[in-house]
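#structure-requests
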Amino acid sequence: MPYTTASDGTKLYYKSWGSGKPVILLHGWPLSADSWDDQAFAIADAGFNAISYDRRGFGRSDQPWDGYDYDTLADDLAKVIEEMAGSADAALVGFSMGGGEVVRYMSRHGGKGVSKIALVSSVVPYMLKTPDNPDGTDHSVFDGMATAMKEDRAAFFKSFFKDFYGVGLVSHPVSDAVVEASWIVAMQAGIKGTLECARSFATTDFRPDLASVKVPTLIIHGDADKTVPIDASARAAAKGISGATLIEYEGAPHGLLASHKQRVTTDLIKFLSESAKVSG
């Protein structure tokens, strides 16, 4: 299997499909690069080089004890960009937790080699409720998540993915098989990385990073997202990133890559193709 090596020696599994302008896809918590497969296939078929990789601690990547803070994760992304994109300007697309890596890369690495970004169901700019972030989520919610995962991670994720995909007594935006497949991927991740990444996306304040985003930006978010509520995330990010375009999906949950697969794919390819030369 193909791997790149981070600065601390951690091996990161990646997939590179197609050719042309590189598009690097960052997955959400607690999944893997495979969650991008449907979009990656279509992006590659549209004439781009679709690159996705497993975050450290998840999927087929190494599971080190350390390195789950956003500075290190952004440095991992920098390594992927350097090795996979080379001198070509890349587009970065971050889903959920992956949105944090995108904007932290833009500030920490000066946006080197990046032509545009997209944030899908992203945690940016700040999930935690504080006096100056009243739309955020109470710290007790994240503490409860950590406690539940430590007590019975398998049971926690059974419930978590129902909210993630908006599955209820009446609503079934995805099949039971999609929920089960996500549960299997989540259970393959290391417990240390799972807990530490949850802490990172819950408590990292990306508001200072937003001014570093100076490239065309697309933000996609469901207005019924229970996992990352839209007011403290997409709507705030759209206000903080100059010139950003926000597309709200009415009634949509967090797991848009599956629940609204075709619409996300169409919107992303349209955005990626704007003022871009693609092969084919």
